Hints:
The protein has a domain at about 10-55. About 40% of the residues lie in helices and about 0% in strands. It has three helices and no strands. The protein has helices spanning about 15-25, 30-40, 45-55. The termini are far apart.
Amino acid sequence: MAKTGRPPRVMPEHYPIVVSPVRASPLSSQAGLMELFLAETGISCHSATFAAALKLAGVVRIKPKLKREFEPPARRKE
Length: 78
């Protein structure tokens, strides 16, 4: 039996279009990537939908680690 329900807004055929701007500039924001996707395909979608499409396309967004040194908390004077 066929799967029923609403089809995805970003189809698997669009995954190369989703991934190409990420490879060109990996530090770009998700909003910027969505604008590029809209300009190229004419398909607008919610940010959660676009995030799911990025995940299904194999893109992993990782937060950069902080580059400051660890400072232990100051001891209390009693």
